Amino acid sequence: MNYSSHPVTKESRQLLRKTATHAERKLWKHLRNRQLDGYRFRQQHGFGPYVLDFYCPSLRLCIEVDGEVHDIEENKKKDESRTEFLEKNKILVLRVRNEEVDQDIDGVLVRIRKFINDMKLNCSDPQPPNLGGLKDLGGLKDLEGLVRKNIWSLAPYSSARDEYSGKEAHVFLDANENPYNDPYNRYPDPLQRELKQRIAKLKGVAEDMIFLGNGSDEAIDLPYRIFCEPGQDNVVAIAPTYGMYKVCADINNVEYRPVLLDENYQMSADRLLAATDERTKLIWICSPNNPTGNSFPREQMLRVIQEFRGIVIIDEAYGDFSQQPSMRSELSRHENLIVLNTFSKAWGLAAIRLGMAFASKDIISIYNKVKYPYNVNLLTQQQALKALDDPFEVDKWVKMLLGERTRLMAAFRELPTCQKVYPTDANFFLARMTDAQKTYDYLVERGIIVRNRTRVELCQNCLRVTIGMRGENNELLAALRQF
To answer: 162 exposed, middle or buried (CB, 10 Å; 0-12, 13-18, 19+)?
Structure first.
């Protein structure tokens, strides 16, 4: 028995959004933003082509907004198949009227909370039923259903420091280490606990929601290994963007589906979602984007997160240079969100190779199962801790780089060989030149290296210029003025 007898298509999704009542939109806004008492609801097709329900899988609770109140007997007469499915799967229905939502939304929320409390159900038990032909408008599939079966059941390697991580002992004879050359003879903390404590305070995220890896590239590769079945699943990404998303897809034998940005390098949530199908596991969004430099509208990214039933990964490698707030603040509301960051850019620590992933503790626990036991070495951990002692120094660097960015971009606009300088929120900018290859070759001859992006889609005749120190930027400008 299908929850809905009406097939769901891209057109019907769009029609459903357009025909949703003001009350339905208002209630969804509050359910989405508040996640009542930790329970997450998702938009769902109801029992009609234009019907919208709000369903909580962990509670088996469906909230229906209707223009009139239907008692149980009337509802049975009206739609016996619906009642049969609800009873069979033990799904309860709470009906609220349009005028209730419009006139007293707080009262409706209180009523929903009381109903949930009366149900006396644990949010992690029972498992949601199989809804057959029903397809959601958004929300994460159950995590187990997304993760590769062999990874879900994987028994991770247990290292000596996993089995004992205390500080009370003083004789360590458990890890086959050489007793000489302290401290480099000892294996590092496999979970980088001290470093995560410091990062958690800085980023405002719980320690168990942080993964640290060998550069962001490890945090990019692991989702393929965790979620994507080689030769079967696919991922969707904006284009142009950071090339490692595709490289990791190719390495893991996963289909990569690029979705072109528009002529202003802006993304479309509709186009990204339209490129997905039932085998799409990941959507990649780099914001600020590399190589274009621009950030994407928050509402567009949120739409993708809310409406895609797989994992959405927002790469904020350049986020420290942007005025746009981090998407980390959305983690508590969206269990299908992973946010990446790095110590390589604003922190000036590209050489130590330290990347970060922020996600729900359930996703992070799977990251930790799949990673190599000692993936972040002691020297990297020590250098990162040292840098965290003085975050104000990083703030000073960022402020100086932003000032230089403004100056350098303005100077580029005055160059006769520069056709356009694109807006940026990163520590670089993209400039369209009259002849990018000739300009690049000319600069190389003078020992100045920028990045020629002319072979990248939508970036014909474009150079990507990283913001350097003032003297380096002056040398670049002096050379270009003589070109």
So the answer is: middle
